[in-house]
Write a structure and sequence with these properties.
Largest sheet of chain A: 7 strands, mixed
Mean pLDDT of chain A: 96
Distance between the termini of chain B: 36 Å
Order of helices and strands of chain A: EEEEEEEEEEE
Strand content of chain A: over 45%
Helix content of chain B: under 10%
Strand content of chain B: over 45%
Order of helices and strands of chain B: EEEEEEEEEEE
Largest interface: A-B, 21 and 23 residues
Distance between the termini of chain A: 39 Å
Structural class of chain B: mainly beta
Number of helices of chain A: 0
Helix content of chain A: under 10%
Oligomer: heterodimer
């Protein structure tokens, strides 16, 4: 059974960089039919897609965050990571790592990590 | 970007009730519409893919329909465990976007 697990600091200071890692078990991020990505859920708001990555390194980002986001993958560790720079209180959210099934013409999110709360505060 | 608008935002429900949640897209997205359920303190779970395709392990009381701009998630004979938030998601074009969510609460 595929499992995804987020890890990283739960508290980040304003203007600093939020860094999270997703460790995948029960499968490989080098799978040809899948992308991997990050989604967040701010308190009292809806889900927001942050970006996605293919194991080869191709990335796609939400334009609303593109200038501050970087997603990378490490196939040797079966992990992928998120960096979000210059954070503000508006970046406080539960962050989920996800797998995208792209075996058909478009993709959907078929596996989700448990989520990790990141609070931006001094 | 494609804006998805769900209705209702909130509904108070009773067991065995039939529940319908709608999702309207700001432009045609074909059948690239998926539904997720999020229970309190859990991560979202895929319920329906490509508007109407069932997912292994998801109870048959959940079904989806629609294409283009108008979509529906139906829960037949709701059970208490179905009290949760429901989100639609479109993958027709980037960025991926979600509806604002519909919260079902037991009366």
């Amino acid at each position: 059974q595929l499992q995804l697990q987020e890890s990283g600091p739960g508290l980040v200071k304003p203007s600093e960089t939020l860094s999270l890692t997703c460790t995948v078990s029960g499968g490989f991020i080098s799978s040809s039919s899948h992308y991997w990505g990050w989604i967040r859920l701010p308190p009292g708001q809806g889900l927001e897609w942050i970006g996605s990555i293919y194991y080869s390194g191709s990335t796609y980002y939400n334009p609303s965050l593109k200038s501050r986001v970087a997603i990378s993958a490490d196939t040797s560790k079966n992990q992928f990571s998120l960096k979000l720079s210059s954070v503000t209180a508006a970046d406080t959210a539960v962050y989920y790592c996800v797998r995208l099934d792209c075996s058909s013409k478009t993709c959907y999110f078929d596996y989700w990590g448990q989520g990790t709360l990141v609070t931006v505060s001094s | 970007e494609v804006v998805l608008t769900q209705s209702p935002d909130f509904q108070s429900v009773t067991p065995k009730e039939k529940v319908t949640i709608t999702c309207r897209a700001s432009q045609s997205i074909g059948s690239s519409l998926h539904w997720y359920q999020q229970k309190p303190d859990q991560s979202p779970k895929l319920l329906i893919k490509y508007a109407s395709q069932s997912i292994s392990g998801v109870p048959s009381r959940f079904s989806g329909s629609g294409s283009g701009t108008d979509f529906t998630l139906t829960i037949n004979s709701l059970e208490a465990e179905d009290a949760a938030a429901y989100y639609c998601h479109q993958s027709s074009s980037l960025p991926h976007t979600f509806g604002q969510g519909t919260k079902l609460e037991l009366k």
